[in-house]
Specification:
Number of strands: 5
CATH architecture: 2-Layer Sandwich
CATH class: Alpha Beta
Strand content: 15-25%
Distance between the termini: 21 Å
Structural class: alpha+beta
Number of domains: 1
CATH superfamily: SCP2 sterol-binding domain
Largest sheet: 5 strands, mixed
Shape: globular
Helix content: 40-55%
Number of helices: 6
Radius of gyration: 13 Å
Length: 128
């Protein structure tokens, strides 16, 4: 069960994730030549946020899902399972647990960042 019971508690975790991702030299190197953005809409919280990884810089936070190159829509429980590593993104898309807006190809390309995003989520939830 997701610990994110409100948009505000989710945004607090997202903001911590962004700080952690910005501190990752590995992630900065991985996105040094990219221009990727992902929006996330959490349907049962009425919340959305985004991540942008471009030219070695990482940004993100509440809002911005509609302006992102791709976005996904899912419930808070599905988001928690996805970002905890317990839900495979491709399987979730194929079985309708998450919905993709934008190019499937771009979505596939974004998967290379999932291990870094998952690590940031776990650390942010733990308060690190």
């Amino acid at each position: 069960m997701s610990e994110q019971r409100s948009a505000e508690s989710l945004y607090a975790v997202v903001n911590r994730m962004v700080v952690l991702m910005q501190a990752s030299e590995t992630l900065k190197a991985k996105c040094a030549h990219d221009n990727a953005s992902l929006g996330v809409v959490v349907t049962d919280l009425g919340a959305d946020f985004h991540f942008k990884l471009a030219k070695g810089e990482i940004s993100g936070g509440p809002g911005g899902a509609k302006e992102s190159a791709i976005s996904i829509s899912l419930t808070r429980d599905a988001l928690d399972r996805l970002l905890s590593g317990g839900l495979d993104p491709e399987s979730a898309y194929m079985n309708g647990t998450l919905y993709l807006r934008g190019s499937e190809w771009v979505g596939q390309e974004f998967l290379r960042y999932m291990p870094d995003i998952i690590a940031a989520y776990k650390a942010a939830k733990a308060g690190n």
